[in-house]
Every structure is written in C-alpha cells, then in structure tokens.
Amino acid sequence: NSRTIYLLSQLEKINLDSVLGESDSARYVTSKILHLVQSQEKTRKEMTSKSSTGIEIILSTLEVKSLIFFYGFIAVLHFVIMKCGGRRASVLVTKGGTQILLQLLLTASKDSPPNEELMVLLHTLLAKIGPKDKKIGMKARINGVLNISLNLVKHNLQNHRLVLPCLQVLRVYSTNSVNAVSLGKNGVVELMFKIIGPFSKRNTSLMKVALDTLAALLKSKTNARRAVDRGYVQVLITIYVDWHRHDSRHRYMLIRKGVLQCIKSVTNIKLGRKAFIDANGMKILYNTSQECLAVRTLDPLVNTSSLIMRKCFPKNRLPLPTIKSAFHFQLPVIPASGPVAQLYNLPPDVDDVVDESDDNDDAETESEIETEIDDDKDQHFKNDDIETDINKLKPRQELRRPIEELKMYEQFFPELSENFQEWDLVSKEPKPFVPDANLSGPIVVPTASEE
C-alpha cells in the first residue's frame, strides 16, 4: 500500500526533526495511519509483516516524542495487535515494544489524575503481549511499574473498564515469583478478596481474571501463609460452595475451577492443608465432586478436587510390621554410612514403617526466606542430593581372585598395560609389516585343558 508507506516515511522524517511546528504534522500523520489501520485489513497485515518497518517507526516515535503524542500511536498499536492476533504481538515483542510500553506507563502514571483512556490502552496492550515476553516480569520490576497497576485497581474498584486490563497485567506480573512476593507485601492478596465474592451474574469476566491472578499469587509461600493467617481458606471454600449451588446450568465452570485453583495453590504449604482440613474442606469437596460426576463437562472440577483431597488427606502408616522384604539378599558391598547402612543396622524389633522423610519438608520451606533473586538463581543452584565425589559413587570392591592369577589374561587386554605414548599414532606413512615373534605359533586359551 503506497499510501501507508508514504505516511510512515513522513512519520520517520518527523522523528528526525525537532522543530516545534512539526507537532501538527505528527498529529495529522498519526490520524491518517489510524484511519487506514481501522478501515483496511491489508494495511494492518502490512504494518506487522517481517519486511515492514512500520512497528519500528511507531515505537521509535513513542520514544522520542512527548506525552501528547502517546495516545494516537498507542491507539494504532492497540488496533493492530488486537485485530491481528497473537502472531502480531510477537512482532511487537521482538521489536522491543515491551520495554517502551513499560516506560510509557511509568511516564503516564505521573499525571494526576492519570489519563484513564491511555491507561486502558497501555494495560490492554501489555496484557496481550505479556505472555509472549518471558522477561516481562523482570522488566516491569526493573522499570518500577509493578505498583502502578496495583494502585489503579485500589483506587478504581468500581471502574470495571479500567480494573479488568489492570488485573490482566497483574496476572502476567505474578507469574514471576519475586514479583508475587513484592506485590503481596503491598496488599494485593487482600485486594483480590475484595473483588472475588459469592455467586453473581454481573462482571463474571472480572471475577475470572481476579481468580486467575490470585491463584498465581498464592503459589508464593509467603502469600499463601498470609492468606492462611487471614482466614481466607475458609472464605475460598465458602465461595466455591456458593457458586456450586447456584450454577445449576454449569455456565460458570471456569470460575468454579478458578476458585479450586486458588485452594490448590494455598494447600501447597502445611499450614494451608491444616486450615483446609479444619474448615471441613475434605467433606465439602468430596460431596461436590460426587454431584459433578454425572456431568461430563465438569470433569476438570472433579480432577482438581481429587488432587486437592489427595494432597490434604492425612498420612497413615502402612499395615505392615516392617518395610523389609520377606526374602533377604546380601548386597555385595554395604556402604559404611547412609540410609542403606541404617536400614541394615536396625535391630529386628524397631518399627521402620513410619516414613518421616517429608515431615520436615514443609517446616523447612515455611521457614525459608524468599529472597528477591531473579532468574539467575538457577545458575547458582546446588542440589545437595547429588553426590559429586567419584570415589563415593564407585565403591571399591575386593577381588575374588588375587591379581597374580589374572596376569595370564594380560595379552588379551593390552590397553591396561601397554604404554601408548611410545607408539607413533600421528604418522600417516604406511609402515612395513614386521611379524611379531609373540604372534607365531598356535593360540593358547589359558582356561582350556589339553587332552
């Protein structure tokens, strides 16, 4: 489209000029580009094609121009991305759009009060391209924009048009564990429980996004403990029962599943499982699952409920006197220390059925301080369960026959005794064949006997 190419070239020329009179021209070009994008699908595809520089020109304009130009260009990006789908969102990410949009969000938030229309567009764009950018959580934290979306939700709880895209962005931020802890300290968990509530046919999309955000936040053990301390486990179970009773036509299965996902996240810690049992959660989920069995579309609810109940069910000992087998086989080498040695050294009357291997696991994780180390923490991770000492991995075994008796086999394994450094293995010149005196005569097998 020659018209689009001409307008983009004009916009690129305006970017290079710093004349004050160019503001009107920039507005005119922006309005024309927005009109073409809104009216012609061919223009939208051309803007986001691999060979086109349209996205780069718009992003560079957003970097160099003042705040008064933001709305027009962001409207162009918003329309292109929302109409053209996820593949176009990936184009915006590869061009560095995430960083620029976060900077624009930081700049726009400094206005008092912030421009609502601009905030809606920015958050909608970030929510759309966020899943395509694996580093968006880290970028948001570095740019200092985590609390912007949170504060907008706090002060505009009744403005659902603004709250919905803000919650979508918070859901993207919360996939990063460090961000989840930081947002939890600023009261995001308590805020989510102000949005979610009992059965209502109004604002179900907002309810669904809030539940997804809360489930992501509760994966952090710090946030899960905060939810348990405030009695939110009982609240989640009550909300689930209310939606289960009123949703007789099963139209809001995703919301019911979202509540179960929150319960599943909070029961990852020992305190959460205890609070779940104390709130009679086992009986409630069992009864509701029984009622859902007849409806095939509710299988996800049954599966999630089963996972929660299996995780929270109290542990019982095996109905066995010992975990040792009735048949005993002597190991060739019994290590001097370790779990195997402890098992072999136990007296016969000691009860070894009770497995306390994971009893301290929750205590350790709950007392663990979640430090604000980002994705690089995996590079410094060290697993203490992996043995690195070669000598311990290969225990020495005593030979059943002395070494002198094995020397008769030495000629079959020259690699064990031959000094290969004296051999000329690099030379490519052929060597004349010289028969070896040791090779003459019959082949004698040491284990064979003469008749």
From TrEMBL:
Pfam families: TPR_CCP1_N. It comes from the Eukaryota. Gene3D superfamilies: Leucine-rich Repeat Variant (1.25.10.10). This is CBPC1 carboxypeptidase. The chain crosses the membrane at residues 57-81. The keyword Transmembrane helix applies. InterPro entries: ARM-like, ARM-type_fold. Residues 431-451 are annotated as: Disordered. Keywords: Carboxypeptidase, Hydrolase, Membrane, Protease, Transmembrane, Transmembrane helix. GO terms for molecular function: carboxypeptidase activity.
